[in-house]
Amino acid sequence: MNETAWTYLLVTATFSIYIGIAIYTRVASTKGFYVAGQGVPAILNGMATGADWMSAASFISMAGLISFMGYQGSMYLIGWTGGYVLLAMLLAPYLRKFGQFTVPDFVGDRYYSNSARVVAVAGPFHLRE
Length: 129
What we know:
This protein is an all-alpha fold. The protein has helices at 3-24, 30-35, 42-53, 56-69, 74-98, 103-110, 114-127. The radius of gyration is 21 Å and the shape is extended. The protein starts with a helix and ends with a helix.
């Protein structure tokens, strides 16, 4: 077999394994999808959220900003971290209280409007101008 045939064989085998795992482990509810049926302890969930927030791009850009700007650049890191923690602490209890997992779902249910849900999805992109 040549190199192209091996490539197709490995790609097909890999996708087949992934599709098999997805079918075997599928969830039946939204709660199971978003929060693993609440089977994950809070400390591990917080660690996963922190890892999502501190992606490689954020880490590299913040390190570069502090390296480039010196001590003055640390205010961006403090604002970035503080803003994230503040947002999470102020928003998470309301999401849990309403039984929702995303901000657009929360806004749509809170204001009984699908239009508000669409604005919640599109809103932050228009505020940057």
